[in-house]
Design a protein that fits this description.
- By secondary structure, the chain is α/β, with parallel strands linked by helices.
- Helices cover 35% and strands 27% of the residues.
- The protein has a six-stranded mixed β-sheet with strand order 6-7-8-3-9-10, with helices on both faces. Strands 2-1-4-5 form a four-stranded antiparallel β-sheet, covered by helices on one side.
- The longest helix is centred in the C-terminal third of the chain and has 18 residues.
- The radius of gyration is 17 Å and the shape is globular.
- The two termini are 31 Å apart.
- Bound molecules: adenosine-5'-diphosphate (2 copies).
- One adenosine-5'-diphosphate (ADP) binds next to loops.
- The site of one adenosine-5'-diphosphate has 11 residues, from strand 2 and helix 1.
Length: 225
């Protein structure tokens, strides 16, 4: 069971730009939450606060009721997939997927077991020795997913993971990500500016504008409004 609580969360950058204002949300176990809204509305900032990559200016973030504000990013039971994949160009696919485990001092044989398993799930087994530049866009995107999967985290965060793919691959990857979410039993937050993506993927949608939550509901509730 993994629940997330965002309580009155506000973010000010350099005590000037107020990127997020009084964000409140309870996320239940195994939900697939989508934050949607135009560029600059505070989606990434909110996700990065949850990941521990940005400080929270005001308010509390909790996992299973435990306050996480002061817990370091690497010590949170959270894995994140970035928009630009952030793959290391000089490392093989295997090493890219293994990196987050190495820095957490996971034993070598355990790393190999987890990377091999993730590669199998994602169809990456033939490419483990390749460098990212020898892969297609879809394969790179899978490596970025693989790097998150191997963490065995309870919470998955995804920041516009499909926006660099062509439209056909984007549609295909939507359903792959949902299958993955169901298979891994994670609690997931997915950020996009694409309303169709939100409507087809979410258990609940959070609509944001100018740093403020406008509406929260199932795709049907949002559509009916
Ligand atoms: P979105 O993900 O919805 O595109 P962001 O969370 O990236 O929105 O940005 C929200 C607001 O915060 C924007 O006005 C953006 O310019 C500002 N912002 C984002 N990151 C920083 C930063 N590191 N320093 C200052 N302002 C930032
Ligand atoms: P996105 O909209 O996907 O969040 P952006 O292009 O807005 O991406 O931001 C890319 C990076 O630049 C992020 O790390 C963000 O924190 C940073 N950033 C965005 N706006 C600002 C800003 N006004 N000042 C400083 N850094 C910013």
């Amino acid at each position: 069971m993994t629940t997330l609580t965002l309580k009155n969360i506000t973010k000010r950058y350099d005590n000037k730009v107020q990127a997020v204002t009084d964000f409140n949300l309870d996320i239940e176990d195994r939900e697939f939450i989508v934050f949607v809204g135009p560029s600059g509305c505070g989606k990434s900032t909110t996700l990065r606060m949850i990941a521990g990559l940005e400080d929270i200016s005001e308010g509390d973030f909790m996992i299973d009721g435990k306050r996480m504000n002061d817990v370091a990013s690497k010590d949170r039971d959270i894995a994140m997939v970035f928009q630009n994949y952030a793959l290391y160009p000089h490392m093989s696919v295997f090493d890219n997927m293994a990196y987050g485990l190495k820095i957490r001092k996971v034993p070598k044989d355990e790393i190999k077991r987890r990377v091999d398993e993730a590669a199998k799930i994602l169809g990456l087994d033939p490419y483990l020795d390749r460098k990212p530049k020898a892969l297609s866009g879809g394969q790179r995107q899978r490596v970025a997913l693989g790097r998150a999967i191997v963490r065995d985290a309870s919470v998955f965060l995804m920041d516009e993971p499909l926006s660099n793919l062509d439209s056909k691959l984007r549609v295909q990857m939507r359903s792959e990500i949902i299958k993955l979410h169901n298979r891994l039993n994670t609690t997931t937050i997915y950020v996009t500016h694409d309303q169709t993506e939100a409507m087809t993927m979410a258990t609940r949608i959070v609509i944001m504008k100018d740093g403020v939550v406008q509406q929260v509901g199932t795709p049907k509730e949002v559509y009916d409004n």
